[in-house]
Structures are given as C-alpha cells and as structure tokens.
Amino acid sequence: MKNEKSLESEISGFFATLLRQNFGKGPTSVYVTLTRPFLAVHFRGFIAPLERILLDKDENKRIVETRDLLMDDLATDIRLNLNKLTGLDIDTVYAD
Q1: What three-state secondary structure class fits 62?
Q2: Over the stretch 35-55, which tens digit does the pLDDT of each residue have?
Q3: I need a surface site. Which of 4, 15, 26, 28 has the fewest CB within 10 A?
C-alpha cells in the first residue's frame, strides 16, 4: 500500500485536474489531509473568471448555487476515483 503522503499527493493532482477540466481553471494549490477514515481537501486561489465577475456584482449566492450544482454532478466521479486511489469507500462528499 502507498504511504499517506504519496496518496495525498495523488489526490491533490486528481482534484487539480478535475477542477481544471470542469471549471476551466484549477486552484493555485490543493492541500490534502488523509487521516483514515477521513479525507479533507482544501483549495486556495480557486475563483473562475465568471465567478470574479459575479463577486464584483455582489452575487455570492449565484456562485454558491453554481458550485453546488457542479459538485453534485461530480460527486460520483469523485467517490469512484478516490476509492481507486485510496481504497477508501467514500460515503459522502461535502463541499462548502
């Protein structure tokens, strides 16, 4: 089995690629903490150009709604790929 740091690095790469493919832009950094059975992922610098426009217009609610829709759509793919990488059965994906 891979060590935790190696897994964290692979998970970080997976999320960076996933976000870039689905949002058009990836985060500047992805921090992953794997403490079985929990996995926490933190993104920094993750504002898409469209979201920047919405922020400038004080439309925060629209950003949250759009991200929620996309994350709901990606949840199955996230669970499956994380299972392949870590061997963990991911029950739920939370995003805020």
Answers
A1: helix
A2: 888 889 999 998 888 889 999
A3: 28
Tokens representing residue 16 in the block: 């960076």
Mean pLDDT (the chain, rounded): 89
> Backbone phi, then psi, for 33, in 5-degree steps?
-125, 120
Q: Is the pLDDT of residue 31 over 70?
A: yes
Residue pair 25/49 in contact by the 8 Å Cβ criterion? yes
φ/ψ (deg, to 5) at 13: -65, -40
Q: How many angstroms separate the CA atoms of 66 and 80, rounded?
A: 22
Which two tokens mark 32?
Answer: 């992953």
pLDDT of residue 2: 67
